[in-house]
Structures are given as structure tokens and as C-alpha cells.
Design brief:
The protein is mostly beta strands. The protein has a single domain (2-107), classed as Barwin-like endoglucanases (Beta Barrel). Helices cover 5% and strands 48% of the residues. The protein contains one helix and eight strands; from the N terminus they run βββαβββββ. An eight-stranded mixed beta sheet has the order 2-6-3-5-4-7-1-8. Strand 4 and strand 5 form a beta hairpin. It starts with a strand and ends in an 8-residue tail after the last strand.
Length: 115
């Protein structure tokens, strides 16, 4: 049986930009995407720790090392610059009792730099 599990997450990132004039998505620093094993256009869930809001969108790779976390398009209404968020990806794995799945967790500081 396949089950949906947390594949990876970027924990407590800070929104640096919100761009209403874009088609939609979240732009994430390329280094953070690589460390969290997130690929461009992958579906992500965004949990706004500041407001309690949750949404799904897709990831766009931003400039590596920039620290960018930008909500684009309609998603820009779901958070503002300075809000703390968690970005989660999910994957399907075979349910195996003897070998539990372990997600990749990337923790960042207030400037979205890996801790």
C-alpha cells in the first residue's frame, strides 16, 4: 500500500517578498530548494506560522544564496513580508513497518540561511 508522507520541509523561513503581479507560486532560494530536495514546479504546502493560514502552490527556483522567499500572484494575499512560514513537500512511499521514512528537514535563521 502507498501512503503519503512528508518528503521534506523548510522550517521557519521568513517571507521576503510578495508579488501580486505574477501568475502564482512561491519563489524559493535555490540553495534551500536543493537542500530540501524540492524541484522546480513541485507542489508545496505553505503553512503561515504568523497567521495560521495554509495553502498549496508550486515552487519556483530563486537565485541561490539570495534568501528569497516570495509569495507570487494570488498567494501574495496569504502572507506578508516578515511572516514566518513552513514549506512542506509530500511523497508516496510503500508502507513498510520495518523501515520508517525520514523526511529531509532544513532549518533556517531569520535571514533564510541554513542553520
Amino acid at each position: 500500500m502507498l501512503i503519503s508522507v512528508c518528503k521534506s520541509k523548510i522550517h521557519r523561513a521568513t517571507i521576503t517578498e510578495a508579488n501580486l503581479d505574477y501568475e502564482g507560486s512561491i519563489t524559493i532560494d535555490g540553495d534551500l530548494m536543493k537542500m530540501a530536495d524540492i524541484v522546480p514546479f513541485e507542489r508545496v504546502q505553505v503553512l503561515n506560522v504568523t497567521t495560521g493560514d495554509r495553502m498549496e502552490t508550486y515552487a519556483i527556483e530563486g537565485e541561490a544564496g539570495s534568501g528569497i522567499i516570495c509569495l507570487n500572484g494570488a498567494a501574495a494575499h496569504r502572507g506578508k513580508v516578515g511572516d514566518v512560514i513552513i514549506i512542506i513537500t509530500y511523497g508516496l512511499v510503500e508502507k513498510i513497518k520495518s523501515k520508517p521514512h525520514k523526511p529531509k528537514i532544513v532549518k533556517v535563521d531569520n535571514n533564510n540561511k541554513i542553520i
